[in-house]
Amino acid sequence: xxxxxxxxxxxxxxxxxxxxxxxxxxxxxxxxxxxxxxxxxxxxxxxxxxxxxxxxxxxxxxxxxxxxxxxxxxxxxxxxxxxxxxxxxxxxxxxxxxxxxxxxxxxxxxxxxxxxxxxxxxxxxxxxxxxxxxxxxxxxxxxxxxxxxxxxxxxxxxxxxxxxxxxxxxxxxxxxxxxxxxxxxxxxxxxxxxxxxxxxxxx
Length: 203
Known about the structure:
PH-domain like, 7 strands, alpha+beta
């Protein structure tokens, strides 16, 4: 499912919304396939008590692998890596939700890593170095991490350009919208919001 629009600020536009790469399913899919092969072999080539034991093992393995694959899909569907014109967002969780937000202003560097096999399938890891408390965040199973790296740098450059040129980011109305978004997300307190709002309105 796409990232919920209700969680975006009024001035935000989504430049990228990704779920993890299909390689995310590799282990449960391989386990399910191996279980099915084991079941077929036990039916075709084994007889007697040993065959019955192996068939039961294969059946249990198939059920467990299928459950693992379904759980993996639910996690995949509820994991979003989002780049907007204001921040980088990572959000996941089927029932309990967790997330990371990195303002583009604080992004210092973006690094991608790909093994030879990952280059073939178009997957890899992404590391974002920022000026926040965590300092560095790593994201795995990212689709086309080199393109994502370029996009983040492009969005950051565009935001810097808007701020320095004075359009769409430095006016009071836009700053107030950003403050309201920070207040809604709990990043700042009501008192901090009022103080900053007063400072903006006073010029």
